[in-house]
Automatic annotation (TrEMBL):
<dbReference type="InterPro" id="IPR024077">
    <property type="entry name" value="Neurolysin/TOP_dom2"/>
</dbReference>
<keyword id="KW-0862">Zinc</keyword>
<comment type="function">
    <text>Cleaves proteins, imported into the mitochondrion, to their mature size.</text>
</comment>
<keyword id="KW-0408">Iron</keyword>
<keyword id="KW-0170">Cobalt</keyword>
<dbReference type="InterPro" id="IPR001567">
    <property type="entry name" value="Pept_M3A_M3B_dom"/>
</dbReference>
<protein>
    <recommendedName>
        <fullName>Mitochondrial intermediate peptidase</fullName>
        <ecNumber>3.4.24.59</ecNumber>
    </recommendedName>
</protein>
<comment type="similarity">
    <text>Belongs to the peptidase M3 family.</text>
</comment>
<dbReference type="InterPro" id="IPR024079">
    <property type="entry name" value="MetalloPept_cat_dom_sf"/>
</dbReference>
<comment type="subunit">
    <text>Monomer.</text>
</comment>
<keyword id="KW-0479">Metal-binding</keyword>
<keyword id="KW-0007">Acetylation</keyword>
<dbReference type="InterPro" id="IPR033851">
    <property type="entry name" value="M3A_MIP"/>
</dbReference>
<keyword id="KW-0809">Transit peptide</keyword>
<keyword id="KW-0645">Protease</keyword>
<keyword id="KW-0460">Magnesium</keyword>
<dbReference type="GO" id="GO:0006508">
    <property type="term" value="P:proteolysis"/>
</dbReference>
Length: 706
């Protein structure tokens, strides 16, 4: 999962990723190689030992979080934000007084960078730091920077300084492709905020933006809010499966893994029972988004949201989803029939519905059998081997300074290229702890950019996982799913490290949403290839390699119900498109859910439920939920074109870096896809790529052919 700040015109761009730019060669040639450090240590060993913690540096100077001197104490956030705000005011004056030209774009990017360097860091700290004082200070910094962004997004003089540049054809023609694209992105961000409108409409747009932010926050909170029911309404013998609160039972989730059919049924129907306040919040959110889209010149919110993506418009998205649904329908029915047979053997009384699917689709492999082969250190060494052979990159553990990390078990990795030197830093916050968010994701802390003095501002990111800690008898051991997630998140990190853009506004993962997950999903293909896994999967006690028959069983387990799983994603994506399509909606959101489920999924709707009220992605991925499927389609095509024959092919790795990773969001995503695939894929190509993954078991084929 990719986490990015959303600060409007001057924040990190929404989750998504783009391609190559014409000036890449000259930029890389102009960047001085960073020298290596003798303090670096092997990455694998660093993750299989307990951290030494602060005991190593009891009396050393406290450097501050991420090496930022001000952040040695919570009060430092106020100092950092005030410093950024003062610099912002100076840069705004420069932008408005500088004659239009390439320098205008550089000033805008520096302005974006000065805000993001505080806001992105604060966005992470406010949810991840174990100390409340740091979290609260970071939250306040986010509010302060957000207020400045709102001010900038309504600064007409600032907008006009950019507009003058893009209105002058001769000036535009003189810009290199990346500079022109960044200028257009800044202008687009301004105009979707309504700055080009007259004063009255501009005020309406600002008010709608504020309302949407508030509604989004309220809806997001409501998606996780538990429901309760009076105790006497539940059969006594299942009450112990839930939390009690006086005369009520609290239901805080679907309990999809509970073996008792009645427990799952109760949880599903109670947790998804419609909440009137949440229903109204969703309706207002969708309506407000539609009003804002129309106000700034778009027919629907979906049309506004899909500007600059691979899909480009909602018509293409719906064509993609409908064609994919048609191709999946027969396979999905077979999956449902298989689940029905499984259920009949265990409990022949009820038919299969949505409330049963999530339980019976589970396959009988035991993840714990695989854990001894996937120690965290071995997996990190596996990533190191892959990245070195594919891209000439090595990961080295570096001892952080006192105060640099927020928890003693956070590891700092230096990312080093064999000829280019130090590329950036990855902070690995991998282990479970109290109050830590239960999500696996990538955070940009500082974006890369070419500075005025010719140096390159090195990117800094955090990878957050929730892995079990090591014990006295064993290192941290990963399930196959955890191992795949580790590879996935490292894909995001490599995008950030290798996105050598001139401008931080389009650095690394700051690109269109339907491209953002391509590098991370591609890494999942490597994680599921026996030739890669065989390089590192060793029993932590005996050193025995992971047996091929176990890999084969694991691969087969991933094919079980894969069509139905994909069909479910199609249903979610179609629902998202309809909600953000033509307004007023033709029916209630619940009626639309029921109709869309019948058309795009097949399992019957459960009466008196409203799953859409738990659909948290409607906030961060509004009109863009299809992005997961499209990114997977692109990743599948890249895998088959470049790496299926040899997952360690260095030439293919360099081509992938040059055409895709290097450009961040500095090029149109489809141009990057074309660069790697050597063709412009159609909707049918995307659909075929996804469907073929259900058929071909590359790993089993390779093992059987040996």
């Amino acid at each position: 999962m990719l986490c990015v700040g959303r600060l409007g015109g001057f924040g990190a761009r929404a989750a998504a990723l783009p391609p190559r730019w014409a000036g890449q060669g000259s930029l890389q040639a102009g960047i001085r190689a960073r020298r290596v450090s003798t303090s670096w240590s092997p990455v694998g060993a660093a993750f299989n030992v307990k951290p030494q913690g602060s005991r190593l540096d009891l009396f050393g100077e406290r450097r501050g979080l991420f090496g930022v001197p001000e952040l040695s104490a919570p009060e430092g956030f106020h100092i950092a934000q005030e410093k950024a705000l003062r610099k912002t005011e100076l840069l705004v004056d420069r932008a408005c007084s500088t004659p239009p030209g390439p320098q205008t774009v550089l000033i805008f990017d520096e302005l974006s960078d000065s805000l993001c360097r505080v806001a992105d860091l604060a966005d992470f700290v406010k949810i991840a730091h174990p100390e409340p004082a740091f979290r609260e200070a970071a939250e306040e910094a986010c509010r302060s920077i957000g207020t400045m962004v709102e001010k900038l997004n309504t600064n007409v003089d600032l907008y006009q300084s950019l507009q003058k540049l893009l209105a002058d054809k001769n000036l535009v023609d003189s810009l290199d492709p990346e500079t022109r694209r960044v200028a257009e992105l800044f202008l687009f961000d301004f105009e979707i905020s309504g700055i080009h409108l007259d004063q009255e409409k501009r005020k309406r747009a600002v008010d709608l933006n504020v309302k949407i932010l508030d509604l989004s926050s309220t809806f997001l909170t409501g998606t996780n809010f538990p429901n309760k029911i009076e105790k006497h309404l539940l059969p006594e013998h299942i009450r112990h499966n839930f939390t009690s609160a006086g005369d009520h039972i609290i239901i805080d989730g679907l309990h999809a893994e509970a073996p008792d059919d009645l427990v799952r049924e109760a949880a599903y129907k109670i947790f998804l029972y419609p909440n009137a306040g949440q229903l109204k919040c969703l309706e207002e959110l969708l309506s407000s988004r539609d009003l804002l889209a129309k106000l700034v010149g778009y027919s629907t919110f979906s049309h506004r949201a899909l500007q600059g993506t691979i899909a480009k418009n909602p018509e293409t998205v719906m064509q993609f989803l409908e064609k994919l649904s048609d191709k999946l329908s027969e396979r999905t029915l077979k999956d449902f029939e298989m689940i029905r047979e499984m259920k009949m053997k265990l409990n022949p009384q009820n038919s299969v519905s949505m409330l049963e699917y999530f339980y019976y689709r589970q396959y009988n492999i035991e993840p714990s059998l695989y854990c001894p082969f996937f120690s965290l250190g071995a997996c990190m060494e596996g990533l190191n081997i892959l990245l070195n052979r594919l891209l000439g990159i090595s990961l080295y553990a570096e001892q952080p300074a006192k105060g640099e990390v927020w928890s003693e078990d956070v590891r700092k990795l230096a990312v080093v290229h064999e000829s280019e030197g130090l590329l950036g830093y990855i902070y690995c916050d991998f282990f479970q702890r109290a109050d830590k968010p239960h999500q696996d994701c990538h955070f940009t802390i500082r974006g890369g950019r070419l500075k005025e003095d010719g140096d390159y501002q090195l990117p800094v990111v955090v990878l957050m996982l929730n892995l079990p800690r090591s014990s006295r008898s064993s290192p941290t051991l990963l399930t196959p799913g955890m191992m795949e997630n580790l590879f996935h998140e490292m894909g995001h990190a490599m995008h950030s490290m290798l996105g050598r853009t001139r401008y931080q506004h389009v650095t690394g993962t700051r690109c269109p949403t339907d491209f953002a997950e391509v590098p991370s999903i591609l890494m999942e293909y490597f994680a599921n290839d026996y030739r890669v896994v065989n390089q590192f999967a060793r029993h932590y006690q005996t050193g025995q390699p992971l047996p091929k028959n176990m890999v084969s069983r694991l691969c087969e387990s991933k094919k079980v119900c894969a069509a139905a799983d994909m069909q479910l994603q199609v249903f979610y994506a179609a629902l998202d498109q309809i909600y953000h399509g033509k307004h007023p909606l033709r029916n209630s959101t619940t009626d639309i859910l029921k109709e869309t489920q019948e058309k795009f999924y097949g399992l019957p709707y459960v009466p008196n439920t409203a799953w859409q009220l738990r659909f948290s992605h409607l906030v961060g991925y509004g009109a863009k939920y299809y992005s997961y499927l499209m990114s997977r389609a692109v990743a599948s095509m890249v895998w088959k074109e470049c790496f299926l024959q040899d997952p360690f092919n260095r030439a293919a790795g360099e081509r992938y870096r040059k055409e895709m990773l290097a450009h961040g969001g500095g090029r149109e995503p489809m141009l990057m896809v074309e660069g790697v695939l050597q063709k412009c894929p159609s909707v049918d190509d995307f659909v075929s790529a996804l469907v073929s993954d259900l058929d071909l078991d590359f790993e089993t084929f390779l093992m059987d052919s040996e």
